[in-house]
Amino acid sequence: MRPERIRPVLVTVALLGLTTTACGDQTEAAQRERRHPYAAVEDLPEVLAPDGTTIVVGDPRRMPVRVYEDVRCSVCREVEVTGAGPSLLEMTLGREVRTEYTLSSALDGRLGGTGSKKAVNALRAALEQGRFAEYRAVLLRSRPEENGDGYTDALLLEAASHVHGLRGPAFDSAVQEMKYADFAEKSQKAYEAAGAPVLPAVDINGSRLPQTESDVLLTEDFFPVWVAGYR
User: Fold this and answer.
1) pTM to 2 decimals?
2) Per residue in 118-144, pLDDT tens?
3) Rounded Cα gap, residues 34 and 229, in angstroms
4) What's the CATH number of domain 37-228, 3.100.10.10, 3.90.660.20, 1.10.10.410, 3.40.30.10?
């Protein structure tokens, strides 16, 4: 069960009332903006946060939903394709939340190989081209077997061919030369500093989704209702 949230809700309602009274123009502007969602994934703003490891996608002023994942993880793919992933994308496009990503390469250590690190490096390279969100979706959908070390340079580059404008000398060389190996290492350390949660894991507005409730990530329709409880 989630902790009691009645008091924060009452405070929030009171503050909203004050904001509407004192700053009506600002509130109306925010409401108008929310009525104009991003048209498609390629329109989403994406940036590396000042901490050097968090990748932020969507309107930076919205409530954060942080995702911890290793793209080599089979459950991460399941969540992305048939679970909470589509709902989270819809909420991000609709300016309801912003999505923050902490990318882990933990499965390399557990299963052997370097596929996770290579994928994180490639995702960081995609961010430089403004194509992180699109490329991430393609990688998860084309995920090789978890027990194999399938994220080779060839697979990563082939997957990038399905993202308009991503392939080019800068991206290709970054993938082949592991340009962002330091980022992959720092990102893994950030995941460990967060408690190395079982993947995938989600923080909603700063609160960790309990492991006992993680099945909600496998349910597309219920996830927005769950997120609403953390506002």
Assistant:
1) 0.84
2) 999 999 999 999 999 999 999 999 877
3) 19
4) 3.40.30.10
